[in-house]
Specification:
single chain; about 375 residues; alpha/beta; Rossmann fold; Arc Repressor Mutant, subunit A; 3 domains; two-stranded antiparallel ribbon; about 10% strand
Length: about 375
């Protein structure tokens, strides 16, 4: 709460301002910081001299909005829909949102039982293209399920495509997920995701800056993304074209000092072009949940080392491997020639050849030695020796 303001007055003033000031309005945020929510609300209700930083026309538009605002009614509608209002200073307020400075939300409308503050502490954003490919949907779902199984909360925007796949992946794994909407949380959007968002509200949280009944607009979607970025420990972009709104989320995360990650796709895919551009900058390439947690998790939570399969010849001692590598494919070779190729003596080469014969790698042909079919199948670089 702002210092000196009565809690009830502060609550009504903040709810009032969510109806009047657009999300992310830096000028409105500065007014609240300098004068407090109650004073700003009074000035807008009175409609007198404009507060600094806006034209007369814009002030008149804000005052017109203020005349239609009914914070008490908004709270009643919210309560009937199982929605609560959480403002800065409340015990449930996620402190990391304060990193947004004057663009910090005036408050958040929250639908669902868990504590937003507690869930936000261990959360990761998964965002991406609405018109994603099957690959993008698969990666989003798999990443979300892996994160949920590790106890992380998956945050996304509730949209079609990657967002929906991320939410479903977390829910399918029995995990936690949060949908941050660009409209009133009592009216699911998009409508095709009504069932999904209802399920998220039952098992997780649905949050937004806009009061009950408010509708989304293109600018509200873009401004919503800063909340996703600030709320979470890091943002993963699964698929995104050059002009994707998901890149707005990623860049907001970078400005806030959060981790930014990208899932690579085909170099020929326009839906991965934006992700690849991020990866050419400060974003980190990730391919599974373990690699995400290695970045956002506690010290020592390392992803397993990646390596190819261990082949039987990898287990040979160096001297034996040098002798094996000295044998050309397709013809028997005398021990002296093998010794020169292996840079060793003839006696040492013979000793290793008998060892290699017992393991099935070479066979004797008169005075010469030849690779067996087993040894000729492949060499370490993957090329055929046949």
């Amino acid at each position: 709460m702002n210092g000196g303001d009565d809690p009830d007055t502060d609550l009504l003033s903040r709810v009032f301002l969510t109806r009047v000031i657009e999300p992310g309005d830096e000028t409105g945020g500065r007014w609240v910081r300098e004068w407090g929510v109650a004073q700003v609300a009074r000035r807008l209700r009175d409609g007198g001299e404009p507060l600094p930083g806006v034209s007369g026309t814009r002030w008149a538009g804000l005052v017109a909005r203020a005349r239609r605002a009914e914070p008490g009614r908004d709270l009643e509608v919210a309560r009937a829909a199982g929605v609560r209002f959480v403002g800065p200073g409340d015990t449930e307020w996620p402190g990391q949102l304060d990193d947004l400075g004057d663009t910090r939300p005036l408050g958040l409308w929250v639908r669902g039982r868990p504590s937003l503050r507690m869930w936000a502490i261990g959360s990761v954003a998964l965002v991406g293209a609405r018109a994603c490919t099957e690959y993008g949907a698969h990666m989003a779902s798999t990443l979300a399920a892996g994160l949920a199984e590790r106890g992380w909360v998956v945050v996304s925007g509730g949209a079609y495509g990657v967002d929906g796949a991320a939410h479903r992946g977390a829910l399918g794994a029995g995990g936690a997920t949060v949908a941050v909407l660009a409209c009133g949380v009592d009216r699911p959007y998009p409508r095709g995701h009504t069932e999904l968002i209802t399920r998220i509200a039952e098992q997780g949280l649905v949050v937004g800056e806009l009061p009950p009944g408010d509708h989304p607009t293109p600018s509200r979607f873009i401004l919503r993304n800063r909340v996703i970025a600030a709320l979470t420990r890091g943002t993963v972009v699964v698929e995104a074209a050059y002009r994707s709104g998901s890149l707005v989320t990623a860049r907001a995360a970078q400005r806030l000092g959060r981790f930014t990650m990208g899932v690579p796709g085909p170099a020929t895919s326009g839906l991965s072009a934006g992700v690849h551009e991020l990866l050419r900058g400060e974003a980190v390439l990730v391919t599974d949940a373990a690699e995400v947690v290695e970045l956002v998790g506690d010290m020592g939570e390392l992803a397993p080392a990646r390596r190819g399969p261990v082949l039987p010849r990898d287990l040979l001692r160096p001297a034996a491997r040098r002798v094996l590598d000295a044998l050309p494919a397709g013809r028997p070779v005398a021990p002296g020639e093998i010794a020169r190729g292996a840079q060793t003596t003839r006696d040492e080469a013979l000793a290793k050849l008998y060892e290699l014969r017992s393991l099935g790698y070479v066979e004797r042909h008169g005075d010469g030695w030849k690779l067996t079919r087993q040894a000729m199948i492949s060499v370490p670089d993957g090329r055929s020796r046949c």
